[in-house]
């Protein structure tokens, strides 16, 4: 399975934070903004940075936007550009479009035109959203410090019908399983002989880099 590819429109504080976090996690990221200075600032960090006006469908096509799995519209103050870009991306058939809203009215408009996820920055911090977008297997995320987090993740396919002792992620990655959720029930501190099932969710704690290494296994 190939890793997801992301394109971020709008490289202000919020958009650049998302783009940087995704790129640091090892994903291909294109950053797009009409401001040349912002494009230059993000260029060393992301896979590709482009200066462009994105409210024109021909421009979007020329950028190869249809090749991306997730598009993030992080345009903030210009509500018209945000709405138009989101609408064009949906019309182009982008699988998953995330849009930043600046007000509740803006949010309602984005909902009506089909944005798959809408972000209100005061409600959702940039790094938490980026981590959640990396893969559908990351269900929730709590940052404990700069280096450590608690995450709720779905199990890897190769873990099905195996015990916690057999998958041995503590020895391999330094990650501890602190709970398993199954069918709405939570087993806190499951024992080493606990057998994992297909739809189990694991609550894990560990170093962010180690968790990213574990997640990379899903794309191999």
**Which stretches are poorly predicted, pLDDT < 50 over at least 5 residues?**
none
Sheet with the most strands: spatial strand order: 3-2-1-4-5-6
Count up the helices: 9
Radius of gyration from the alpha-carbon trace, in angstroms: 19 Å
In CATH, what is the class of the largest domain? Alpha Beta
Sheet with the most strands?
Answer: 6 strands, parallel
Instruction: Give the SSE order as H and E letters.
Output: EHEHEHEHEHEHEEHHEEEH
Helix content: 25-40%
**CATH H level, superfamily name of the largest domain:** NAD(P)-binding Rossmann-like Domain
Task: Please summarize what this structure is.
The chain contains 9 helices and 11 strands.
What are the main properties of this structure?
220 residues; Rossmann fold; Alpha-Beta Plaits; 2 domains; 6-stranded parallel sheet; 34% helix; 26% strand
Question: What would your notes on this structure say?
Answer:
The chain has 220 residues and is an alpha/beta fold. The chain has two domains: 5-134, NAD(P)-binding Rossmann-like Domain (Rossmann fold, 3-Layer(aba) Sandwich), CATH 3.40.50; 138-219, Regulator of K+ conductance, C-terminal domain (Alpha-Beta Plaits), CATH 3.30.70.1450. It has nine helices and eleven strands. The chain has a six-stranded parallel sheet with strand order 3-2-1-4-5-6, sandwiched between helices. A five-stranded antiparallel sheet has the order 7-8-11-9-10. Helix 1 (13-24) packs across helix 6. The longest helix has 13 residues, at 79-91. The termini are close together.
């Amino acid at each position: 399975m190939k890793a997801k590819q992301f394109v971020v429109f709008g490289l202000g504080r919020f958009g650049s934070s998302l783009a940087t976090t995704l790129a640091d996690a090892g994903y291909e990221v294109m950053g797009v903004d009409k401001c040349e200075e912002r494009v230059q600032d993000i260029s060393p960090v992301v896979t590709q940075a482009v200066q462009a006006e994105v409210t024109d469908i021909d421009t979007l096509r020329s950028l190869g936007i249809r090749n991306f799995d997730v598009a993030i519209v992080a345009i903030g103050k210009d509500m018209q550009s945000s709405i138009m870009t989101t609408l064009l991306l949906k019309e182009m058939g982008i699988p998953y479009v995330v849009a930043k809203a600046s007000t509740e009215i803006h949010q309602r408009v984005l909902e009506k035109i089909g944005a798959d996820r809408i972000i209100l920055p005061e409600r959702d911090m940039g790094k938490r959203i980026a981590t959640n977008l990396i893969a559908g297997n990351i269900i929730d995320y709590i940052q404990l410090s700069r280096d450590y987090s608690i995450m709720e993740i779905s199990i890897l396919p190769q873990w099905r019908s195996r015990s916690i002792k057999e998958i041995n992620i503590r020895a391999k990655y330094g990650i501890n399983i602190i709970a398993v959720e199954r069918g709405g029930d939570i087993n806190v501190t499951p024992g080493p002989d606990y057998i994992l099932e297909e739809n189990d969710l694991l609550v894990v704690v560990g170093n962010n880099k180690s968790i990213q290494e574990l997640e990379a296994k899903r794309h191999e």
